[in-house]
Amino acid sequence: LLSASASIPNPSEDINSIGRHSEARWLADQKARRSEILAAAEELNVKSIIMGAVALANVNGAIVRINDSVMTDSGVEFRIKAIGNSAVTAASRAPELDLEVEVVIPLKRN
User: Fold this and answer.
1) SS3 string of the chain?
2) Could you tell me the pTM of the whole model?
């Protein structure tokens, strides 16, 4: 039998505690993944841009257009979202973390 000082665990408190822990973990994972993506974006290099009916860009030696993908050496995939006169906009997604990181890569002029 239970003594007067014993407490019975409240299931809703346990669930709330788990929920807070899971949310904190999810936010930490999302922050870490964002940092990984931003670090990988530093590997992207726009060497040239050709504007025309279909804009093209040389990103890391590959000729790409909007919606093409580029893989960095560290294994992060970026999708080309826009090509402008002096920069390319690319994004990497981590759908499991509800995360999309968009970066603008300027054309490197010599």
Assistant:
1) CCCCCCCCCCHHHHHHHHHHHHHHHHHHHHHHHHHHHHHHHCCCCEEEEECCCCCEEEECCEEECCCCEEECCCCCEEEEEEECCCEEEEEEEEHHHCEEEEEEEEECCC
2) 0.77
